[in-house]
Amino acid sequence: MHKCPPAPLEFVLLLDDDLRRRGLRGRVDLHFISPFPEVFPGKKVARLMAPLLDARGIRVITDFTVKEMSPGTVRAHDGREVRCELAVLVPPHRVTPAIEAAGLAPGGWVPVDPRTLRVAGQPRIFALGDTTDLPMPKTGAVAHFHAGASIAALAPRALGESAAQPVLLGHNPVRAILRPEQMPYAISGERLIFLTPALV
């Protein structure tokens, strides 16, 4: 799973643009390989991006899950190979070693209550973004919305009130809206731990 599904598309398009501006694009074959059946996991985006990549001469190879690399070759689990002089790949996504060492990710991801993002069995620990076991994209946007949901769960507790639930519904994160005067108190008075890859 990509940490951020749009990032590889953004990268190949930026590279294409840079090579064109420098007059080098005609000397470079660009390939976009994707583990998904289309260029992007969302069909609406895939329908927009596939023709754009084609128009820019970027060859698309789908359903290509990388198994291994050797000098000059990227090999998929199904045996297909792509020859290359330079491969830029997104590494496999996982939680950080610190989270694993703490025993907080027994199934590879941190199990959380989808309403509050509280870690299962850990009433004072919350996890958000790409560390959680929630079936959501592992993107910065999701972490952004998770932060709001976590604060909505924490602020009432810090203020001595009970939290309204649910905060997070289904697979669509809902931004929590708090009054500005509540924000400074959302994390004061108690030691609360947030787990994000950027902080551990």
Describe the structure.
By secondary structure, this protein is of the alpha/beta class. It contains 4 helices and 7 strands. The strands form 3 sheets. Strands 3-4-5 form a 3-stranded antiparallel β-sheet, with no helix packed on it. A two-stranded parallel ribbon has the order 1-2. Strands 6-7 form a two-stranded parallel sheet. Strand 3 and strand 4 form a beta hairpin. The C terminus is likely disordered.
Please outline the helices and strands.
Blueprint: H1 6-21, E1 30-33, H2 43-55, E2 58-61, E3 66-70, E4 73-76, E5 81-83, H3 97-101, E6 125-127, H4 140-158, E7 193-195
Parallel strand pairs: 1-2, 6-7
Antiparallel strand pairs: 3-4, 4-5
Q: Which short descriptors sum up this protein?
A:
200 residues, alpha/beta, 3-stranded antiparallel sheet, two-stranded parallel sheet, 4 helices, 13% strand, elongated, disordered C terminus
How does the overall form come out from the CA principal axes? elongated
Structural class: alpha/beta
What fraction of the residues are assigned to beta strands by DSSP? 5-15%
Low-confidence stretches: 164-200
Order of helices and strands: HEHEEEEHEHE
Number of helices: 4
Mean pLDDT: 76
- How many DSSP E strands? 7
CA distance, first residue to last residue: 21 Å
